[in-house]
User: Fold this.
Amino acid sequence: MPFRQEPPRLGNQYEEDRALRSYLKRTLPPGVLREVEPSLAEMGELAGGGLYRAQLEDRLNEPRLTQWDAWGERVDRIEVSPLWRAAGRLAAERGLVATAYERRHGAHSRVHQFALAYLFTPSTDIYSCPLAMTDGAARVLTTSGNEPLIEKVVPRLVSRDPEKFWTSGQWMTELTGGSDVGASETVARRDDGGAWRLYGRKWFTSAAASQVALTLARPEGNPPGGRGLALFLVETRDAAGRPRGIRVERLKDKLGTRKVPTAELTLDGAPAELVKGTTDGVRDIAPMLNVTRLWNGVSAAALMRRGVALARDYARRRSAFGSALAEKPLHADTLAGLQAEAEAALHLAFYAVELTGREEAGELDDAGARLLRLVTPLVKLTTGRAAVGVASEAVEAFGGAGYVEDTGVPLLLRDSQVLSIWEGTTNVLSLDALRTSLKDEGALASLKAEVERLTRGARDVRLARVARAAREAAAHSWSWLAATAGKSPATLEAGARRFSMTLGRALALALLARHAQWSLEEERDARGLAAARRFALGGVDLIDDEADPADAFALMAD
Ligand code: MFK
Assistant:
């Protein structure tokens, strides 16, 4: 018999995900878990079965832009791949956005929705992007007080009927700045009938096939900066499917997320409706950013999980030097490190999901809301960076096969790389977390208290070292900020990433410790303990009290 290498296989991605099931068992009341579990098991079956096969078959398909029809008419039609068309239908039917707004299970509805998203995401080539923005738009609109827009658009965004379901874009990025949104140059002008029209160039608009988009523009005469921008809703096409005052100049040729039709757009009199006031657009769109950052965190955890699931299965099917890779201590040790990072990301992202659900259900007090404001960028930046590292290791775990496109494995790395870039890069979010901590000492104090509370319950002696590491790292963030703030703005800014990453990893470790204790007691399972101990080994406290920004500038000099 010639040698034949079995490819990696996936089973039911819900049934096989011990960490997710254990988390849900601890978090959801038994009655809620019983009600939502069938939907998760079905999604898990699809994600490891039909959807995964469709994803592999769809590998070479990409979105297509047709700018002109045969008779010289500008049409700017965007067609997405077959997998994406199927994903759109499925997302509507399974309520990937709707679940959060129907609120059948009150605050727990967000946990249900994001558990579905976590299972759906790795098999649908970042269809989570339009869903994230749609969710963010629904959140902004429902709290906007703009009744006509709420009535017209929100039922579409939260529909379970694929024929009615609309997705929303989030057009923010311009040539002048992806991060510095206040530098936007798009202008809003009233036409003769008094309606708003937008003129400008949007440089990087994800999921450009959406039916509506939230975007920022500067009403003529407004001052520069974020305050001078206003938030608008654009309906992208007329009833015949023609673009409304919008030209799609080209689709972006990106490293990853290649199924996402990301476009450069020219707005040339695009009709738009003001969502709230004529100023403070950045502040008005911020709730959308917080929702999409949540999706980013859950997507990061989900892609990490997929990398580990494939690498773990492959390790059982691949032999080298006389035995299966899974039996090799060093290979097992490497994969265990990835599993610990994935479990940490799961707990961290879902912690923010839980707070969001409680906020929306009116169960969060002011201190909780301020804690969530700080936790959101921490979750996004910590999980986004970790996802890139885990994906790179997962690719390597396949040896040369992981570097070959038709295994489907390289996709993991390419798609993970975006998670630390869009919706705010690691550095921009680190600065956001730093600013929030300086502006609201109470938020940072709540976070430190949360780490202490979570670790206090971790009584098992084997968790003592872990709990101490989490508490000391959180306390170090606090003392570094107190010692540095007001002394040297450059030292403060240069240390923002180490400060934020330390807070993010300290919170993740505290959450792992709390879950490990519960799992030891309730499930008689020591794997949560192993995850916490292993995650701690990867380093938590990254702060350097001696760091001098002059060193960085010296290193960067010619
Ligand atoms: C897989 C799942 C993910 C899928 C989604 C993918 C789609 C990809 C689409 C995109 O990538 S869209 C582009 C995303 N772009 C960004 O995320 C921009 C990153 N830059 C920032 O976040 C900057 O920090 C920011 C633009 C907000 C800075 O702008 P400014 O003009 O200097 O604003 P400033 O002064 O910091 O904040 C203005 C107001 O908003 C302040 O409130 P006040 O007016 O009351 O003082 C802030 O407190 C408030 N604010 C800012 N960020 C907030 C916020 N409030 C709540 N939450 C936030 N996150």
Notes: The pocket of decanoyl-CoA is lined by residues 128-129, 132-133, 170, 172-173, 179, 181-182, 206, 225-226, 280, 282-283, 286, 289-290, 292, 295-296, 299, 373, 422-424, 428, 432 (CB under 6 Å). The longest strand covers residues 263-274. The mean pLDDT is 97.
